[in-house]
Q: What sequence folds into this?
């Protein structure tokens, strides 16, 4: 059986949570979920698997359709994200036209949240909800019988399965095969934050136990499911063997279990593995000695979610952190020689011009190497979105309407309680300009440039940021 897995392009994305000038400079990241499914699929006897990352490779829907037809794909799996839904529909339509006998299956966060709406869009034959590795491989192993009696999470348009259930969460993540990075063009992936390439992404755990009301990854659940340190470092070593020079961990929170973090660092040091890595951490989780150990093991960068300069807004978000914890975390990470990135949002519940100014002041005080400001978008499936609907801040279920009838004119909703969309856009641009125009920030970046290409990337990014004028 020939299985083709496609990551659609982003030619017609919805408006990003980042200003366009910033979004265009982020880099390219591998489709990690698709590569996990690819690894599971090729372990099924008699299965030949290929992956097309149309986004990174610059391929069109027509290109992918021709590839599917020429190869004779039997099953085509596709990642469907809300922000690239229009491209996913274009891709599914084209590959179905070019290879009409192939079964086209939609997976990913959008298909998980909106299975029935996704199914009504026309080109998809089936939807896979939840974590796809085990259900998809079970589908292939039992084909064609599983066409009539599909595994959990699979739902077919023709009614072979009447209601869309959810594939059970995989508790023992160590038993999963490592993502099939060798099926992609590894050298295409890089990050604007890193001075080395290629990079790759990894997940050392799934699920986040915290209760932030804006969290938008319900398909991974709230139960923290960690991989063992040995398994994590085994994958890092395998990635290094493919030429990868930096691993960006995509865990919601890498540092939930501090002891596991230390075991990972110890194992990297024990093996003498030479690879950089960066993580997402809570400001409350690690201490100075933890950062120092991780730095010795190759940790290059830590991303911290701070969100707002107003303590009352932090409390309303149920973030569970304090500004004093943030000050301590940034100070300790910087003392260990780590780069830091701070995440902040604008347009939060209770946001005013005064709280935006407090966010700008805190960002300057924390003095991270990078800062990421974004407009708060209440995502479907989150407590924040439910609250926005209940309070009439968002008047109707716009995400469900978009999922059922997607349009290029759709504008993601904002929390327009006090500040309206144009004001949020102006505030966002001002925050970027204010932070990155600081002489100390510019000087620090210049000191860390290691190559002419790095200098040019930084210069292009700087020009774009300095020219920000705000968006509606």
A:
């Amino acid at each position: 059986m020939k299985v083709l897995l496609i990551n659609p392009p982003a030619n017609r994305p919805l408006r990003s949570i980042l200003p366009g000038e910033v979004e265009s400079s982020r880099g390219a990241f591998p489709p990690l979920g698709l590569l996990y499914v690819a690894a599971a699929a090729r372990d099924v006897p008699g299965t030949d698997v290929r992956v097309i990352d149309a986004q990174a490779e610059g391929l069109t829907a027509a290109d992918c359709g021709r590839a599917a037809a020429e190869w004779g794909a039997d099953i085509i799996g596709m990642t469907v994200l809300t922000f690239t839904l229009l491209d996913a529909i274009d891709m599914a339509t084209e590959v179905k036209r070019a290879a009409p006998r192939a079964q086209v299956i939609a997976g990913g966060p959008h298909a998980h949240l909106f299975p029935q709406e996704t199914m009504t869009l026309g080109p998809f034959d089936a939807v896979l909800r939840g974590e796809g590795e085990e259900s998809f491989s079970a589908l292939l192993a039992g084909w064609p019988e599983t066409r009539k009696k599909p595994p959990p999470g699979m739902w077919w348009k023709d009614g072979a399965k009447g209601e869309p259930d959810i594939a059970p969460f995989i508790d023992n993540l160590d038993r999963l095969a490592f993502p099939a990075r060798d099926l992609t063009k590894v050298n295409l992936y890089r990050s604007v934050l890193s001075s080395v390439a290629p990079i790759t992404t990894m997940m050392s755990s799934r699920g986040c136990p915290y209760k932030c009301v804006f969290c938008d990854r319900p398909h991974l659940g709230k139960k923290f499911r960690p991989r063992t340190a040995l398994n994590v470092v085994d994958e890092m070593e395998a990635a290094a063997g493919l030429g990868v020079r930096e691993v960006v961990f995509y865990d919601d929170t890498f540092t939930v279990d501090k002891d596991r973090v230390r075991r990972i660092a110890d194992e990297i040091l024990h093996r003498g593995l030479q690879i950089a890595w960066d993580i997402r951490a809570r400001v409350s989780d690690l201490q100075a000695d933890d950062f120092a150990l991780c730095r010795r093991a190759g940790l290059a960068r830590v991303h911290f979610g701070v969100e707002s300069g107003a303590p009352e807004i932090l409390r309303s978000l149920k973030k569970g952190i304090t500004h004093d914890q943030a000050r301590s975390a940034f100070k300790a990470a910087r003392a260990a020689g780590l780069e830091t990135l701070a995440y902040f949002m604008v347009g939060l519940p209770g946001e005013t011009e005064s709280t935006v100014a407090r966010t700008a002041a805190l960002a300057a005080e924390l003095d991270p190497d990078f800062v990421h400001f974004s407009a708060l978008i209440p995502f479907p499936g989150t407590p924040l979105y439910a609250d926005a609907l209940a309070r009439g801040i968002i008047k109707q279920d716009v995400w469900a309407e978009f999922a059922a009838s997607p349009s290029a004119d759709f504008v993601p909703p904002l929390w327009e309680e006090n500040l309206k969309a144009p004001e949020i856009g102006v505030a966002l641009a001002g925050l970027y300009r204010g932070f990155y125009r600081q002489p100390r920030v510019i000087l620090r970046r210049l000191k860390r440039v290691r190559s002419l290409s790095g200098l040019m990337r930084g210069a292009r990014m700087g020009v774009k940021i300095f020219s920000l004028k705000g968006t509606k």
Notes: The first helix runs from residue 20 to 23. The first strand starts at residue 2 and ends at 7.
